[in-house]
Amino acid sequence: xxxTRKSENTTASPAQDSxxxxxxxxxxxxxxGLLRFLTCGSVDxxxxxxxxxxxxxxxxxxxxxxxxxxxDSKRYGTQGQNMDLALLVDGLAAERxxxxxxxxxxxxxATEKRKFIVADTPGHEQYTRNMAxxxxxxxxxxxxxxxxxxxxxxxxxxxxxxxxxxIGQIVLAxxxxxxxxxxxxxxxxxxxxxxxxxxxLGLDNVTSIPLSALNGENVLNAxxxxxxxxxxxxxxxLEAADTGADxxxxxxxxxxxxxxxxxxxxxxxxxxxxxxRLHPGDEIVVLPVAKTTHIERIVAQDGDLSEAVAGDxxxxxxxxxxxxxxxxxxxxxxxxPETSDQFQVRLIWMQDEQLLPGRSYLLKTxxxxxxxxxxxxxxxxxxxxxxxxxxxxxELNEIGICNISLTSPIAFEPYGTDRTLGSFILIxxxxxxxxxxxxxxxxxxxxxxxxxxxxxxxxxxRAGQKHQRPSVLWFxxxxxxxxxxIANIVEQKLHAMNRHTYLLDGDNVRHGxxxxxxxxxxxxxxxxxxxxxxxxxxxxxxxxxxxxxxxxFMAERRMARDLLADGxxxxxxxxxxxxxxxxxxxxxxxxxxxxxxxxxxxxxxxPYERPEQAELTIDTVALTAEQAADEIIAFLKQRGYLExxxx
Length: 647
Known about the structure:
It is a single chain. By secondary structure, this protein is an alpha/beta fold. The strands form five sheets. Strands 7, 8, 9, 11, 12, 13, 15 and 16 form an eight-stranded antiparallel beta sheet that branches. A six-stranded mixed beta sheet has the order 2-3-1-4-5-6, sandwiched between helices. Helix 12 crosses helix 18 and helix 14 runs parallel beside helix 15. The protein starts with 13 loop residues before the first helix and ends in a 9-residue tail after the last helix.
């Protein structure tokens, strides 16, 4: 009798087979190393074309993309009837119309051996800031040189930035060899020129490759066009490069990005482990407070982990209750990073407005933001000659060596040791624009040797003895507006009320404390910085301080305000039109400015930035100086500054 039982189906269904193939592919890709690299160099060296060639030859372009590229090439291309491969990465309309790269374009592709993320960076000098952005995460730089032009200024500038950012692997791609008839002598001369320059920057790991990105020669495969070259292709060099996978070695560095409190029973600290490894039970230190404890749990999306390695995004819980905030660094107790509030740094200035030492900026490193200022600009670097040049300011795209001072200490590593804790950006406090990229060289030893000395007689005790509320009345306005006159009358009235006061006048201060300063923007910033610090000391002594300075820049008035506690800084804008100030001209300065005898005069060839949120605005056209002083006294009474000893 036949067996009518159904036999088991041991063959996988098409859906199961497809799923298994996808999972196998993803597992294979996950095990491949990832190399981040950038292309850089001067304009029209062929960076975008090279990346397009890599994508095309590595079969990383879909059919619809290829069809779109053919259509775009006819409309925007620069290669006649041929495909313009640069259009694969030149995505902005302005880029296609001008035939240049403006923004940084990132592309992902993979080969059988490795995965890649490439940043195509702009070559124009005005977009150097974008190039620095693309280089900040790269492990290798492909520096292109047009074989017809050789090493040019922008090649040197980009190489210098690459060296500053610690990218130790360089591929010198001598492109457009087809336009010099594949001449070996041309290639050898460029190779020798660049290697000599690179050696002066400390770049000794340089691989030189002659190629034609347009024709694909020595990009993915070697061709017969240059039989005299027996080295590796560009793709071969990329596949053999170091990926920086050793970040898991060494002590752990975990910048806290977020304090995770989903409910009352859980407190964790979320972020990405920058370097090293962490395990439950490891002893760690929280910086900059320098408190030690142990890791309780390592929490990930799919549950607890027994280990976190560099690159993992996790949440840590700690065994002990420690005050940990965003921006703090959790580190291995052994081999912990340093902390400081002063550093020597390298800056790449990325703003049209000059860097002015003494001006307050916001410094952002890892996940922490703190006020900072450049305390000393030591020198700037000539990117062509490598010479150190004296400078008082930095202009757009210039590179300088500076000392920088923060209002609070941070955990750090030298940039050459750890990019995460050794890099930062500076942010303009008014516009919120990123104005500079920076790399920490080392902490200044004096910063760790100086500590606040505790004193028993403090500001409150001194103010209480004087029966007054200490404050700064910051008079600002154009020359001739009446600042000094009104401030002088206000001080007379306060003195008559038995107030303890002091008047810091702009001209008087320049006879002593600031006699070494001129009237450039940089000197004006330093002038106000010093006055702000002196005013702070006088407020600490319990005084009511009046300052009469043009103080033309909002950033410096903001800096002076930030030195003091809430309510201690009162900005008084003496609002007088320029034409009225010119008519008064009590010191004859406007007449000299009109005659060209005074340079950098506020209102003529140096700007005045009107206060946007002054505590009090005085119209000296409508009021006499005496009336203006009475209005200020009434304002002080209304705000409670004269209550303690009001006569």
